[in-house]
Amino acid sequence: MIRFENVGLRYGTGREVLSDLTFSIAPHSFQFLTGPSGAGKTTLIRLLFLNLKPTRGLISIFGKDTALLRRADMPALRRRIGVVFQDFRLLDHLTTYENVALPYRVLGKDEASYRADVADLLDWVGLGDRKHVYPPVLSGGEKQRAAIARALITKPEFLLADEPTGNVDPPLARRLLRLFLELNRLGTAVLIATHDIGLMDQLDARRMVIEGGHLEIYE
Ligand SMILES: Nc1ncnc2c1ncn2[C@@H]1O[C@H](COP(=O)(O)OP(=O)(O)OP(=O)(O)O)[C@@H](O)[C@H]1O
């Protein structure tokens, strides 16, 4: 599904942040991405959803060499990938419901065609009764779940989550992990970037560890 070959990334003229990354991500797979602060987890996530171009090497996403992609092909490919950002990126002037529905609104879809899907998804993440409130009054954990719902609304084949349990207490972190596992069971490949060893220790999942610009994988 995703293939990196000898990928390197530097910002501007700085040192290489990521060097010689070679790995694959299989459909329906589940993995953690970890490493010290500043190791390059967010950078790798940005490469994975075509938000950054590698300085060298080859990245193939859903079988397409990203270097050969036309700009016009990007949005369709990106829609197959859901991203939960570390800082949520919810829009404060839209309700929780409207934030989650945003990807459909951007596509110009008729509200009647997605209203039930958004409501079901909000129930699924436990925000059924927070639909009509605005992000500034949501707690950190509620914002986190709204961001997860928004990433899932277009039924992505691959979900990337950057520190999705960074702002929640351990019971909620376990609950979010169960949501990701359930999503994975339903067929979505999942990659979770985290510092949280306790979270990773709950599962016998693949671990991708970035350190000193290099990637080690523990299957
Ligand atoms: N836009 C940018 N321009 C220049 N340097 C950057 C940029 N974004 C990140 N970096 C640098 O690249 C390195 C990797 O950063 P990145 O955010 O990918 O790490 P991380 O592993 O996600 O860190 P954390 O766990 O603290 O979120 C850091 O040295 C950072 O300062």
TrEMBL record:
InterPro entries: AAA+_ATPase, ABC_transporter-like_ATP-bd, ABC_transporter-like_CS, ABC_transpr_LolD-like, Cell_div_FtsE, P-loop_NTPase. One of its GO terms (cellular component) is plasma membrane. Pfam families: ABC_tran. It is found in: Cell inner membrane; Cell membrane. GO terms for biological process: cell division. Residues 2-217 form the ABC transporter domain. Belongs to the ABC transporter superfamily. Homodimer. Forms a membrane-associated complex with FtsX. This is Cell division ATP-binding protein FtsE. It comes from Pleomorphomonas carboxyditropha. The gene is ftsE.
